[in-house]
Design brief:
The complex is a heterodimer.
Chain A lengths: L9 E3 L4 E5 L3 E6 L3 E7 L4 E7 L15 H13 L9 E6 L12 H15 L4 E6 L5 E6 L5 E4 L6 E2 L1
Parallel strand pairs in A: 1-3, 6-7
Antiparallel strand pairs in A: 2-5, 3-8, 4-5, 4-6, 8-9, 9-10
Chain B lengths: L7 H26 L3 E5 L3 E4 H4 L9 E11 L3 E7 L1 H11 L12 H25 L10 E3 L3 E6 H13 L4 E11 L2 E11 L1 H17 L1
Helix pairs in contact in B: 1-4, 1-6, 3-4
The chains are: A alpha+beta, B alpha+beta.
Chain lengths: 160, 213
């Protein structure tokens, strides 16, 4: 599993995820991909996945690459940090179409749709969202507070 | 996990084709800016998805770039990327003014970057097209789109460009070049990123080529 939980602040690369507890920052840079941040406010356990595609279609080697494997893997890795059941909320960002090229057309939207659908199915409320558009994003999760910040080049950063 | 896009012999054959592209692009760029330039084709890289997004630099600093979409026998995109200072050198060169005169991305500077991208990419693609093995006159051309200029996070850009290949594999292939102008290296990078369909084309074309060797 592509989990990198120890050294903070952790830069999470394409198709990777990380989980941690109590302090530090997880961050990732997104284009068409989607960043999925999960957090338990009481136990201060957080996780961030940088997912690339909506469906794994049976592939198991890189769970963080796909929405349908990343979210369950993220939940499992976070739960392993706590003896009590976690109460998670989600924030998602990304899914841009950066250019009018055919390369990644619609993949961004599909990633967002698949993420939202699976989170609904798993009864994890989505409390923040910053998706679509045509620009890349830097997404950071503060593990002490659960605050997720999204920055776009040339714009003020926002908390979601 | 071994799902590398191309075998070693195929890579070598592809690199030979790209060297021809770099040579023609060097000639075109020299004519365009009126100074001797050298574009050097680096080895073609096959990277894991995780490692690929740092090819234009580590860190979160934004970069400038022009992107050209490719259609035809080779689909995907070409990207000319540079930091602000290196990109603005272009405008100084083209306006025959001292380096450092251009200080921000106005219409003139952006136009210089776009036109340079157009010239370099077209020359590169023309040479690749001619050097492509087993080409017939009736085969589809390589058709570049008009370039688009933007400023964004380098990792976000590379991620977007690689999305086509990422859908098919956990490893991606990209080719990178370095630039020298008037004997001085400049921090411009030209990336060639084939899409997933073109990876199949490249495997087929260079499989035949290496079989013949």
């Amino acid at each position: 599993m592509s989990t990198r939980p120890t050294i903070l602040p952790a830069a999470i690369r394409m198709g990777e995820m990380a989980v941690a507890q109590s302090g530090g920052v997880l961050r990732t840079l997104l284009g068409s991909c989607v960043g999925i941040a999960l957090y338990d406010r009481r136990r201060r356990v957080g996780g961030l996945a940088h997912v690339v595609l909506p469906e794994s279609r049976g592939k198991t080697e890189t769970p963080a690459k796909f929405v349908d494997t990343a979210i369950p893997a993220l939940v499992e890795a976070m739960q392993a940090l706590s003896e009590e059941p976690l109460r998670l909320s989600a924030r998602i960002a990304g899914g841009a179409q950066m250019f009018k090229t055919s390369v990644a057309r619609r993949i961004g939207d599909q990633n967002v749709d698949a993420s939202e659908a699976l989170l609904r199915t798993m009864r994890i409320p989505i409390v923040g969202r910053h998706c679509g558009g045509s620009k890349g994003r830097r997404m950071t999760l503060d593990l002490a507070t659960g605050v997720v910040r999204v920055e776009i080049v040339g714009c003020e950063g926002v908390e979601i | 996990m071994n799902d590398l896009p191309l075998a070693e012999a195929q890579l070598l054959a592809l690199e030979a084709v790209l060297r021809a592209g770099a040579a023609e692009a060097s000639h075109a760029l020299s004519n365009w800016i009126g100074k001797p330039t050298e574009i050097t084709s680096d080895a073609v890289q096959q990277l894991s998805l995780h490692d690929s997004t740092s090819v234009l630099g580590e860190g979160d600093e934004p970069i400038c770039f022009c992107i050209v979409e490719l259609a035809g026998v080779l689909g995907g995109c070409m990207i000319l990327a540079f930091d602000d200072a290196s990109g603005l050198v272009l405008a100084d060169l083209l306006l025959d003014q001292p380096r450092g005169t251009a200080s921000e991305w106005g219409d003139m500077e952006t136009s210089a970057a776009l036109e340079t991208t157009n010239i370099v990419c077209c020359a590169y693609l023309n040479a690749i097209s001619r050097a492509f093995p087993h080409r017939e006159a009736s085969d589809p051309e390589m058709v570049p789109s008009p370039p688009q200029f933007s400023r964004d996070y380098a990792s976000s850009l590379v991620e977007f460009a690689l999305m086509g290949q990422a859908a098919a594999s956990d490893h991606v292939l990209l080719a990178q070049t370095q630039f020298q102008i008037d004997g001085e290296p400049v921090d411009w990078k030209l990336l060639l990123v084939p899409d997933a369909e073109s990876m199949t084309t490249l495997r087929d074309v260079f499989s035949s080529e290496t079989d013949l060797a």
